[in-house]
Design a protein that fits this description.
Length: 101
Amino acid sequence: MAISVDEPHQSAAWARKRGLAFPLLSDPDLAVIDAFDVRNEQAGDLPLHAVFIVNREGNVTYRKIARRRVRPDELLAALDGERLRCCPGRCDATICEPIPR
C-alpha cells in the first residue's frame, strides 16, 4: 500500500492513471504522516519520502526516510531481505536501515 497527502478522489485518479495494483490511501489531515514522524517541515505540510516494509506479523522490518524517492534497486533489495547501507555522498536519507529481526 502507499499513502498520499492528497484527497481520496485525487489519489484514486492518480492510481487508476498509473494502473497501480495495490491500495493507495489518503492522509490529507497528516495523521499517519505525523504518526510515522515523516513530515517535511521545510516543505510545508508535505511528507518526506518514506518506505516502511511491514511483515505479515505487523513488524516493521525496513524503513527509509529521505528527501528523495527510494530507488527501485534499494526497494527490491530491502524486499529480498538484504542489509542496505547508505553510501556517503550518494544518499540523502535521514534514516536508511534494516530493522533487526
